[in-house]
Task: structure prediction
Amino acid sequence: MKLSFHGAAGGVTGSCYLLDTGNKRILIDCGLFQGNDEEERRNFDDFGFDPESIDILLLTHAHLDHCGRIPLLVKRGFKGEIIATAATRDLARLVLLDAAQIHEEDAARAARNLQRHGQKGPQPLYGVYDAARAFDQFGRTAEFDTRIEIGRNLHVRFAEAGHILGSAFLVIDAGDGGDRTRIVFSGDLGPFGRSILRDPALPPQADYVVMETTYGDRRHRGLKESVAELYEAITETHRRGGNVIIPTFALERAQEILFHLAQGVRDKVLSPYLPVFLDSPMAISATQIFRNHPDCLKPELGDALRKGHDPLDLPGLKFTRQVADSIALNRVESGAVILAGSGMCTGGRVLHHLKHNLWRPECTVIFVGFAAQGTLARRIIDGEGTVKLYGQVIGVRARACTINGFSAHAGQDELLRWYSGAGAPKTTFLVHGDAQGGMAAMEKLVAGQGGKVRCPVLHETVELR
Ligand SMILES: [Zn+2]
Result:
């Protein structure tokens, strides 16, 4: 049996692993490389294997860095079955159609520019048609904790990863009885004790583990303190007569913040009249998908939802799907909470809310997620005095506040807690982490527990015996 690493090896994005059992070729995730231009150009490269030769694709969750190259895989000849949980399939449809549209728009824009110089424009990585076609290949739905036969003497089980709605880690058993080899793929793991999602399950004893290490060098702040900080920032801003802008990621973070706002109103910490605007068509659709999957939520929230009590709803919540409604928010001078994408302020509707609120000292921008170097979010957090928005220089006079406790990724202690379930694997492969940061930290800690540890490089193949 062979395992090769065709993404998220020595880096954080592009998750893609190929397990070749001799009889079956199984791909685990097929994600997009994201980040700077060099990373993004990698998406056009060869996969490192022939897409036509793949029998099955197992998808751990719907983040783009895990599913974003699936339409390209199909475009290049993959004809096999895609297996995922029901919630992952629904979220992946939303995410991939959106990504395809962006690829088409980017390519069209580049083509227009090049045409002026008499050159031909680039082809998009894939288009909406390819994304739609990929959905014809979603086959069986994976129920959590249920063995699925994917070949002769070959089974997979999807287990709760607690990272985003529907996210799973995979337990693959090749062979039976004493001859069995068990490989666990962590996908992305969430922290324990979150607000909407269930805790990650622990893996069973395994021969090999492929583990993410995104935040292997960090410890998260407690959720309780973060929620208290959120309420305090909102109350204080509204007392000053300003608005609160929260740049949010459409999947998970937006719903988590909505849940805490609703909870704050129920607990009378926040005003029952608090006007909250979810100003992101994608986050609105994702919120609807959350409502359609009560089984993936914490049992008490799932039960409430089935009885018609929506834990993500609050009296003053408005969804602004139409552009005109979004623009109308520019007239709201005080007392509002506006959630809009993108989370790192690299584009999207949050930009026009920043343009109208960032220069006002009575307003607050609350960052609840990761902000990469070079992004507008990072520059505001780092205290730059002015930023450029839509060609205009805007003074940064609003308060910028960063709340770190809402992470969707397990921190160091939680990764180790999860890993302890796997017993003493023969080899642990560390992926999906920064070679100098999370991965390096986890390498030391996991090596301290006895087994062999490897940090594979891109396209490396190892023999599993
Ligand atoms: Zn993820």
User: Anything to note?
Assistant: The chain has two domains: 2-218+408-463, 223-402. Residues 61, 63, 66, 163, 188 surround zinc ion (CB under 6 Å). Residues 230 and 399 are 13 Å apart (CA to CA). The chain has a mean pLDDT of 94.
